[in-house]
Write a structure and sequence with these properties.
heterodimer; A: alpha/beta; four-stranded mixed β-sheet; 42% helix; globular; B: 157 residues; alpha+beta; elongated
């Protein structure tokens, strides 16, 4: 398969402008500015079938089209580089090794909504990545690719690299905007959506790094070429970050619709050390775990993973072998969400910590009868009852671990201690 | 004496604010600058930033306390942050933390008496394919082993 997103990754000095331009970099940007109207560009991306790669999978062209054209306020484009979903590390690879592809995509998206200020909001911890992006933006300014009167078209665009400061929730788009406004990273109630009321109440589009990095290729080869790949509803290629008990962890680009089992066994080398597979989380720690028998017929596209009862999410594939204690794994994830809850909505603020305590006491032999059902009850009360999707993201994995490995939870309680222990 | 920025830092502050469409948007970069200048963000630093940013100290404190990367208290010269989230845990993160605790003679959240090291456990740092891993100040250290940890510690003065 031809690589779209990882095509530059292995090229020496792939992060420099000279290298990026030596194989056609920024020609798509020139093509857009010199020859395309914003509506035409939006239609092109709609036609490609590209869907947001941050986790939700919303059609990108459609998202852009919600920005009102007659609104007199400034418009903003924000590249979401706040990658923090556990098990996901694809954006970091692009940020560090191919920053110009992200910047070119950011410029194209900004042009589509006629924004004159774009932000790249990068995770605070990614200091090296932020430096790479800063340098790349400075290079692009120097060569007139960003700034005033780009390619003599009269179109102006500034790009600001903005560092977060350590908060998972800022990957959620309205929280990201609160953070970019200089406040606590608190999500906002939708509607109104950022497309009409975003940064400082102005029309704003937030797109994920991987989404934006796909744009230069689509403009270069055309929407039809992109739409020719993948499945009926999940077009193109997608990056998957593979971690845990797997022979060859790393970032892989695969065509949408590729069989998950074949992907794990052939592309990633399977579960190492002669161990059996016990579970796979297909889309980052927020998504329900799947048992080995559930992945038999699953393909790597939004619809197929959803049909199996989980979600493709960010494409963070976490593999667990037979030595994994599923109670401890569930506790680890619950602890993550308890730590990261922003504290605005009581079901999430209280529920995440409560679930964490319950998982912890089951794992450590202090459980009471009924604790397992209590967790299910709490997760059910969080689900759908919070401002942002964080609540669901905490509730879904908790419920799935219990429903799918209930025997192991009950065995822990009966034995008054961990019955698996050794890993996780 | 009240805290204030050096003339160079003040210049950097003004240049930072000038890049943003609204002053308040520069809050995080200004707090980073203050942390770099003052070492950590004590109440006096927060009051100073509040004056610079035309905000109340309470609002600035609210921002500082929300994010994990702003330190309200002094920390060691080398802040060792071990990722503890599931993908790292599956590949030995707990053993990494235990080893570091033993070697440094401190618990998580503590600083060595010579002020060299602070040890913390943190959540996923987007380095799951190279687990277990840790971040020391700005740098990532990946695919950790006991020998590698020894080498890293010896290299940190």
């Amino acid at each position: 398969m031809e690589k779209l997103l990882l095509r530059n990754i292995d090229v020496p000095d792939s992060h420099t402008l000279a290298t990026y331009r030596s194989h056609g970099g920024y020609l798509s940007w020139r093509k857009v500015v010199e020859g395309m109207k914003p509506e035409q560009l939006i239609d092109e991306i709609k036609g490609s079938g590209l869907r947001g790669r941050g986790g939700a999978g919303f059609p990108t062209g459609m998202k852009w089209s919600f920005v009102p054209k007659d609104n007199p306020k400034p418009k903003y484009l924000v590249c979401n580089a706040d990658e923090s979903e556990p098990g996901t590390f694809k954006d970091r690879l692009l940020i560090e090794q191919d920053p110009h592809a992200i910047i070119e995509g950011t410029l194209i998206a900004a042009y589509a909504i006629q924004s004159h200020t774009a932000f790249i909001y990068i995770r605070g911890e990614m200091v090296f990545g932020a430096e790479r992006l800063e340098k790349a933006v400075a290079e692009a300014y120097r060569e007139g690719l960003i700034g005033r009167d780009i390619f003599g078209s009269g179109y102006d665009l500034d790009v600001i690299v903005h560092r977060g400061a350590g908060a998972y929730i800022c990957g959620e788009e309205t929280a990201l905007l609160s953070s970019l406004e200089g406040g606590r990273g608190w999500p906002k109630v939708k509607p109104p959506f950022p497309a009409t009321h975003g940064l400082f109440g102005c029309p704003t589009v937030v797109n994920n790094v991987e989404t934006l990095a796909a744009l230069p290729w689509i403009i270069e080869r055309g929407a039809a070429a992109y739409a020719a790949m993948g499945t009926e509803k999940s077009k193109g290629t997608k990056l998957f970050s593979v971690s845990g008990h797997i022979a060859r962890p790393g970032v892989y680009e695969v065509e949408m619709g590729y069989p998950l089992k074949r992907f794990l066994e052939e592309d990633c080398g399977g579960v190492p050390n002669g161990k059996e597979l016990k579970g796979v989380i297909p889309g980052g720690a927020s998504m329900p775990v799947l048992k080995p028998e559930e992945i038999e017929k699953v393909n790597l596209d939004y619809e197929s993973v959803a049909a199996a009862g989980s979600l493709l999410g960010s494409g963070g594939v976490i593999v667990m072998d037979e030595s994994t204690c599923m109670v401890r794994a569930a506790w680890n994830i619950a602890r993550f969400f308890a730590h990261e809850s922003c504290g605005q909505c009581s079901p999430c603020r209280e529920g995440c910590h409560w679930m964490e305590k319950l998982f912890h006491r089951i794992e450590n032999g202090a459980a009471k009868p009924g604790d397992v059902d209590l967790i299910l009850n709490i997760s059910g009360n969080i689900m759908g009852n919070t401002i942002c999707p964080f609540g669901d993201a905490a509730a879904m994995p908790a419920g799935a671990f219990i429903r799918k490995y209930r025997d192991e939870f009950e065995a822990h309680i009966a034995a008054g201690k961990c019955t698996v222990r050794g890993a996780g | 004496m009240a805290l204030e920025f050096s003339p160079e830092a003040l210049k950097e502050f003004e240049a930072t604010v000038a890049r943003y469409p609204k002053k308040e948007a520069a809050m995080l970069p200004v707090l980073y600058l203050a942390q770099r200048e003052f070492g950590h963000l004590a109440p006096e630093a927060i009051e100073y930033v509040a004056r610079l940013m035309d905000q109340t100290p309470a609002r600035v404190q609210g921002v500082v306390s929300f994010y994990t990367m702003f330190n309200s208290k002094p920390i060691g010269r080398h802040h060792i942050q071990v990722c503890r989230t599931l993908p790292c845990a599956l590949r030995g993160a707990e053993q990494v933390t235990e080893l570091l605790k033993r070697k440094l003679g401190i618990e998580c959240g503590q600083t060595t008496t010579d002020g060299r090291f602070t040890l913390s456990e943190v959540e996923c740092l987007a380095s799951c394919g190279t687990a277990p891993m840790m971040q020391v100040n700005d740098a990532y250290y990946e695919n950790l082993t006991a020998e590698k940890i020894d080498q890293i510690l010896n290299g940190l003065r």
